[in-house]
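Complex 417.
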Amino acid sequence: MYVSRGYWPSFPSRGIRNPMSRKQLIEMTRRHMAHSKAGSVDQAPDVFRVPAAHYCDPQRGQLERTQIWRRLPLMLGFSAELGEKNTYRAMEVAGFPVLLTRDGSGEIRAFVNMCSHRGSQIVAEGVGQARRFVCPYHGWTYNVEGSLVGILDSAEFGELDRSCLGLTPLPASERAGMIFVVLRPQESFDFEAYFQGYDEILEHLGLGDCHVVGRQSVDGPNWKIAYDGYLDFYHLPILHRESFGSEIGNKAVYDNWGPHQRVNMPFPGMEKLEEKPEADWPDAVLLAGIWTIFPHISIATFDADGPLYMVSQLFPGEAVDESITLQTFLSPQAPDAKQQAKIQQQMEFLHHVVQDEDYATGIKIGRALATGTKKNVLFGRNEGGGQRFHSWVDALVETDDDGLPELFARQVGPTVR
Ligand code: FES
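Predicted structure with FE2/S2 (inorganic) cluster bound:
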């Protein structure tokens, strides 16, 4: 995983957004400081084994697609991209065509990007403004709320109940400046149970007020190898010694809300913060570290003459040993030319780190595991975040739809403290 060379960028406090969740941030920071003082880290009770086949067996990959990627919310867009009414974003997510809209009343909606006539993709991939969408095949028209509002030569086509032929809606929810969608049509999805209050903490990052200032993508290994890296500080000074790792340690502390985890580093000297009143503790410290959203998001903060968020969206590829990561960069202010140049420099650096160090290593790990010559890989007691991640993946693969509410109500995986 990658962290900023200036790990605590000196961005200004955004003020208290939610006193309750800020209190949680203070409590977490106190816990991390205690580790810093004691020179300790979070530990799981035991070393943990993950079957090597879980990373390279195509059948397992298929199960994960059904049980995880098609059942859980995925973060598919930013509020900043759909800031205005009557805007949209169309994309393909692991082969699934999706259309996000902000309708005329400002509500976020999500649909399968597929015409009710004969299944054509209606909106080409991209972001834009529109009140209506015209199917490129035979010209049927839908509005931004997803209703079918026009059928070419309708009298000749024949009688239809248009009210049943709108775009197929998908459960969607806008939280903390991000748009989450479940890629399975259903009446509703219990987003509250899924986030467990984590979204209120993420609000403090202020992504909803940011500008998208850059994008790039990186081809990667099996999605779980990539996700392991999001949660792993153990490797930082070793794998990344040439790029940034020589400046930082390898200790990690983990906080979790169900399957979602924050990874932070208990810095030596962190306890100096105690000399200040809590009200003056800067957001940069309270929000430090990597914020992951299961199953595919990592949010990291860097410095580019101001805070620069890198939000990584990880998606499985067509084959079990492939993934793609979209990196979107967001800044609280619209950058001037000087800052944009700095952002570009930081983006190039991060692309290099992820592509040439993290993912190059991950791709080779995938190839080695596919030889079948090792039964398991290991996660140490100090790698509790990875242990929890794999425990959730296993639990979701094994749990049917009826069992999901109970699963999200309990603690899954080892206690890591
Ligand atoms: Fe869309 Fe025919 S497939 S109008």
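The pocket of FE2/S2 (inorganic) cluster is lined by residues 115, 117-118, 120, 135, 137-140 (CB under 6 Å).
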